[in-house]
């Protein structure tokens, strides 16, 4: 296991370097001059002398290869520079906003898991029954309703009309309800149908017939064997979605004025705050890789048939 994790961590290095290279190239190819963006954010008139001074300060007068290696070195030290808008270290700004995004992401994932696992499992057990039809309807709604529209709909219903939950901000547990519901509905739609299909597939396997022949109780077969294997595809999707949520639920954070990382990134785009954009790209790549690595390790423990090479031997 330690060897497997070490190999996976070593494989992360070229992926991170490629993400930095891609980010570096897109910024250099864009028509936005970092020096001009800084002066515009600082409300300083961009004269030629001031522009030349800022380009030299940012190292933009050096060859591109030197600029790239300098960028990699700074990122390795978690030095993303200062924000053009607040003039404070970007890492400090991100560290102040990440807890809000993490809390919202974790609450949304937990809500989606708590609903989709029993709903997807029961939909497969009672195929074409009432629960199955309800889960199908819920999945269609979750997959088709845009998140921003759902967020405003929940605000109108539960905040404006019923006055049950606050409209915006972050504070008590009540502030988590509407954003978490908005984010989790799409996840419930995916996980429910994915788990249902996986359970139906496992029920056709030979080991289920053998277990019933041996007289093992039906509940034990379903929970200890079928569900344990059928949940693995859902775990894979969970890793991707968790990485996406941790990099900032941009639309939902804008709708509910949630002080998280995603909203901070949107503001950085409008303000052309290049250091913040660089930090977002690198963090997004790292979080996606980390979440998928954790999911792979969990799957190894849940299904011993999966080898360290990442496949189920025949």
Automatic annotation (TrEMBL):
Task: Say yes or no: keyword Ion transport present.
Answer: yes
**Which residue ranges does UniProt annotate as crossing the membrane?**
9-29, 102-125, 137-160, 172-191, 229-252, 280-302
- Membrane topology listed for this record: Multi-pass membrane protein
Fetch the CDD domains from UniProt: TM_PBP2 (cd06261)
Q: InterPro entries, per this entry? A: BPD_transp_1_N (IPR045621), MetI-like (IPR000515), MetI-like_sf (IPR035906), Nickel_NikB (IPR014156), Opp2B (IPR050045)
Enumerate the UniProt keywords alphabetically.
Cell membrane, Ion transport, Membrane, Nickel, Nickel transport, Transmembrane, Transmembrane helix, Transport
Per UniProt, subcellular location reads as: Cell membrane
| Residue ranges constituting the ABC transmembrane type-1 domain according to the UniProt record | 98-299
Complexes and interactors: The complex is composed of two ATP-binding proteins (NikD and NikE), two transmembrane proteins (NikB and NikC) and a solute-binding protein (NikA).
Similarity-based family: Belongs to the binding-protein-dependent transport system permease family. OppBC subfamily.
Name of this protein: Nickel import system permease protein NikB
Source organism per entry reads: Planococcus shenhongbingii
The gene designation is nikB
């Amino acid at each position: 296991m330690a060897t497997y994790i070490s190999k996976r961590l070593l494989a992360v290095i070229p992926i991170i370097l490629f993400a930095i290279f891609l980010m570096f190239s897109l910024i250099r190819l864009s028509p936005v001059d970092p020096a001009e963006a800084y002066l515009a954010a600082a409300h300083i008139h961009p004269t030629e002398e001031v522009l030349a001074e800022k380009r030299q300060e940012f190292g933009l007068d050096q060859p591109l290869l030197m600029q790239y290696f300098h960028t990699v070195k700074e990122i390795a030290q978690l030095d993303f520079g200062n924000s053009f808008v607040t003039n404070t270290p970007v890492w400090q700004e991100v560290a102040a906003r990440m807890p809000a995004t993490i809390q919202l992401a974790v609450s949304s994932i937990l809500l989606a898991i708590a609903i989709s696992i029993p709903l997807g499992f029961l939909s497969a057990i009672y195929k074409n029954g009432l629960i199955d039809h309800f889960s199908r309807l819920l999945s269609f709604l979750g997959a088709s309703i845009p998140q921003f529209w759902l967020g405003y709909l929940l605000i109108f219903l539960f905040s404006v009309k019923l006055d049950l939950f606050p409209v915006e901000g972050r504070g008590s547990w009540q502030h988590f309800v509407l954003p978490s519901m908005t984010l989790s509905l799409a996840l419930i739609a995916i996980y429910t149908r994915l788990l249902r299909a996986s359970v139906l597939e496992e029920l056709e396997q030979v080991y289920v017939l053998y277990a019933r022949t041996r007289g093992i109780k039906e509940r034990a077969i379903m929970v200890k064997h079928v569900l344990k294997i059928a949940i693995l595809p859902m775990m894979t999707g969970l890793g991707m979605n968790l990485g996406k949520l941790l990099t900032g639920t941009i639309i939902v954070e804008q709708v509910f004025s949630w002080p998280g990382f995603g909203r901070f990134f949107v503001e950085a785009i409008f303000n052309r705050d290049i250091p913040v954009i660089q930090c977002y790209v690198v963090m997004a790549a790292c979080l996606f890789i980390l979440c998928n690595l954790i999911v792979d390790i969990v799957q190894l423990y849940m299904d011993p048939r999966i080898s360290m090479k990442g496949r189920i031997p025949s």
